[in-house]
């Protein structure tokens, strides 16, 4: 198993960052060029279907703890080179700032491991950058 962790800090309090980071079905609102997700269900167990050039990615929300500012999801199906994929997004309040940790654990398949690691790193860092841009207004 491979683990990729991306950390960063927002210049906003957690109560402003959480609604953005935790909007599981609304990630397209913050990510430039992404089509709206198709969402099936609500809360834990909901699926989001993300359209990508390579095909659809189906992710399922598997754990949600709003009091701890954290959630986890898994990939159900995807053209991405990941199997047994589980990711957790966790916010840590620090006064007027908020730390974020986005960690994914998975097996890389079909491409060299370093390529899969770079892809996951880029996805997490790109999403965080998009969240920051949205929060900056």
Brief synopsis:
This protein has 137 residues and is α+β, with helices and mostly antiparallel strands.
User: How confident overall, as mean pLDDT?
Assistant: 94
Give the fraction of residues assigned to helices: 10-25%
Radius of gyration: 14 Å
CATH architecture descriptor: 2-Layer Sandwich
Summed up, the helix count is: 2
Unreliable spans are none
**Spatial ordering of strands, largest sheet:** 1-7-6-5-4-3-2
CATH homologous superfamily, by name? Answer: START domain
Quote the CATH topology.
Alpha-D-Glucose-1,6-Bisphosphate, Chain A, domain 4
Q: Strand share of the residues?
A: over 45%
Distance between the termini: 38 Å
Largest sheet: 7 strands, antiparallel
Structural class designation: alpha+beta
Give the SSE string: EHEEEEEEH
Number of domains: 1
Characterization of the model:
The protein has 137 residues and is α+β, with helices and mostly antiparallel strands. It has helices at 14-21, 113-136; strands spanning 2-10, 38-40, 47-52, 55-65, 70-77, 82-94, 97-108. Helix 1 crosses helix 2. 22% of the residues are buried. The model has no long low-confidence stretch (mean pLDDT 94).
Topology of helices and strands:
Blueprint: E1 2-10, H1 14-21, E2 38-40, E3 47-52, E4 55-65, E5 70-77, E6 82-94, E7 97-108, H2 113-136
Antiparallel strand pairs: 1-7, 2-3, 3-4, 4-5, 5-6, 6-7
């Amino acid at each position: 198993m491979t683990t990729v962790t991306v950390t960063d800090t927002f210049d906003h309090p957690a109560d402003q960052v959480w609604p953005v980071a935790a909007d599981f079905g609304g990630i397209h609102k913050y990510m430039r060029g992404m089509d709206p997700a198709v969402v099936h269900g609500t809360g834990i167990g909901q699926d989001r279907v993300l359209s990508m050039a390579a095909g659809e990615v189906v992710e399922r929300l598997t754990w949600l703890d709003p009091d701890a500012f954290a959630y986890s999801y898994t990939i159900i199906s995807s053209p991405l080179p990941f199997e047994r994929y589980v990711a957790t997004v966790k916010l840590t309040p620090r006064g007027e700032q908020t730390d974020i940790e986005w960690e994914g654990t998975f097996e890389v398949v079909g491409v060299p491991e370093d390529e899969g690691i770079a892809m996951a790193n880029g996805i997490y860092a790109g999403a965080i950058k998009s969240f920051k841009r949205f929060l900056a207004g």
